User: Which sequence fits this backbone?
């Protein structure tokens, strides 16, 4: 098995065996990674390394972040999540609008602000997952089937 195939198999297994909380963290990580890439490209352009291809690279990164953000939006459970789900929906919708505007205007500040808030949310989710895991230590918990 080649390195690429092994890495692909590892990633697939990691996703298939992830808890809901771990899956949310992975989605946040991917959004942040894509925003980091777009921001890095914009910073290079601002430093005077003018590259006409940067607009396309930033666009791809921001669009990928928006796709993942859409996955978070559609996964919200408004019945179980109540006010928290409604608040996250509003926040995610605002993030999406800021990403659209930031992408169109190639606005480093907008993209950075969204990334910063996503980092805070990721940290909060991580804390919740850690706390829940320690509270459930020794308990038998049913798994989540995300494979369909």
Assistant:
């Amino acid at each position: 098995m080649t390195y690429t195939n092994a890495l692909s198999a590892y990633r697939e297994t990691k996703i298939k065996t992830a808890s809901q909380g771990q899956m949310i963290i992975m989605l946040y990580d991917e959004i942040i990674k894509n925003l980091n890439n777009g921001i890095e490209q914009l910073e290079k352009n601002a430093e005077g390394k003018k590259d006409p291809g940067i607009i396309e690279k930033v666009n791809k990164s921001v669009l990928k972040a928006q796709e993942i953000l859409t996955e978070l939006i559609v996964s919200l459970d408004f019945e179980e999540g109540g006010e928290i789900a409604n608040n996250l929906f509003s926040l995610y919708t605002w993030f999406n609008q800021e990403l659209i505007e930031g992408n169109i205007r190639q606005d480093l500040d907008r993209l950075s602000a969204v990334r910063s808030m996503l980092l805070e949310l990721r940290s909060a989710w991580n804390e919740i997952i850690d706390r829940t895991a320690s509270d459930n230590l020794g308990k038998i918990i049913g798994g989540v089937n995300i494979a369909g």
Summary: The radius of gyration is 18 Å. Helices lie at 3-16, 20-46, 54-74, 78-105, 108-135.
